[in-house]
Design brief:
The chain is mainly β. The protein is about 10% helix and about 40% strand. It has four helices and 20 strands. Strands 1, 2, 3, 4, 5, 6, 7 and 8 form an eight-stranded mixed sheet that branches. The protein has a four-stranded antiparallel sheet with strand order 9-10-13-14, covered by helices on one side. Strands 15-16-17-18 form a four-stranded antiparallel sheet, with no helix packed on it. It starts with a helix and ends with a strand.
Length: about 290
């Protein structure tokens, strides 16, 4: 693995390594920025993301790359000129990559790409976009997180509501609760929900409806939901008090097929980042003490 990382470093900074002048801002903008890297289940390949900057057009683009885990020249998998292709996730047989792409209407959706040849196929069409996603251990199910409208009980309603908001000429906001904003994004009347669907595509189902973030939002962008090893349930974090006042969250489990979430922790502070043990008997997580 150290050899592969060394090869990636040389690949990322070829022009800067040969520079004969002090490092400038322009040199930094020429750097290719290495993002997330994921080892294939068979251990033969590493999929990773590279971000490049176009100063003249004032934008950046993220594309997928592939490199042998034993070393060798990396090769590019996606060739977008704008937007992002990110969060690569391997299929169980190591033949396909699922990833998030903004290539359609600038809204992140899940796509599926063969690593041998061919074009990427769109898997999701979630109106509110996909923030993150996981594949079940058997590769048959996708669990994704989307920020959906609280008054909607299904994805069709979310599609109608989003169209209504986008087409409304009035962009003023009435703020009557907290939180109202997270960094550069307005919370509005939305909450994070877990949506489950077949990995090959199909009807998505919101299994954590309601006016509460399930899973929670974190500043670090950590994974706040996870599949059990047998793929039959999901564990996730949920705020049990107002996020802006206490930040108190607890862990819940819910069947992948849906149902009533069952609360696991009652700590009066943040319980986050759940992860099952390989045998499914235990869940490790982070907990704040106050």
């Amino acid at each position: 693995m150290k050899r592969v990382l060394s090869l990636l470093m040389v690949f990322l900074v070829p022009g800067v390594l040969q520079a004969s002048h002090p490092f400038q801002v322009e040199d930094m903008l020429k750097l290719l920025r290495l993002g997330e890297s994921v080892l294939s289940p068979d251990g033969k390949w590493i999929a990773f993301t590279i971000q490049t900057s176009d100063v003249a057009k004032n934008r950046s683009v993220v594309n997928l790359w592939l490199v042998p885990s034993t070393g060798g020249p990396p090769h590019q998998l996606t060739f977008s000129e704008k937007g992002s292709n990110s969060r690569p996730r391997w299929s169980v047989d190591s033949k396909f990559l699922y990833f998030l792409s903004t290539r359609v209407n600038d809204h992140p959706q899940i796509f599926l790409l063969s690593v041998s040849a061919g074009e990427a196929r769109q898997i999701t069409r979630v109106a509110t976009g996909v923030d993150s996603f996981l594949l079940s251990p058997d590769g048959k199910t996708i669990a994704l997180v989307s920020s959906v409208f609280t008054q909607c009980i299904d994805l069709a309603c979310n599609e109608r509501k989003k169209k209504e908001v986008d087409e409304n000429p009035v962009k003023a906001r009435i703020i009557n609760g907290l939180p109202c904003r997270r960094w550069d994004s307005w919370v509005d009347d939305k909450r994070n929900h877990i949506i489950v669907m077949p990995a090959e595509g199909g009807e998505p189902r919101d299994i954590t409806p309601g006016d509460v973030d399930s899973p929670i939002w974190t500043e670090a962008g950590s994974e706040e939901y996870t599949f059990s090893p047998d793929g039959k349930e999901l564990c996730f974090s949920r705020y049990t008090e107002n996020e802006a006042l206490t930040g108190n969250s607890d862990l819940y489990v819910i069947p992948t097929s849906g149902g009533t979430p069952r609360r696991l922790t009652d700590n009066r502070a943040a319980d986050t980042t759940p992860l099952y043990s390989p045998d499914g008997r235990f869940i490790a997580y982070s907990a704040a003490l106050r």
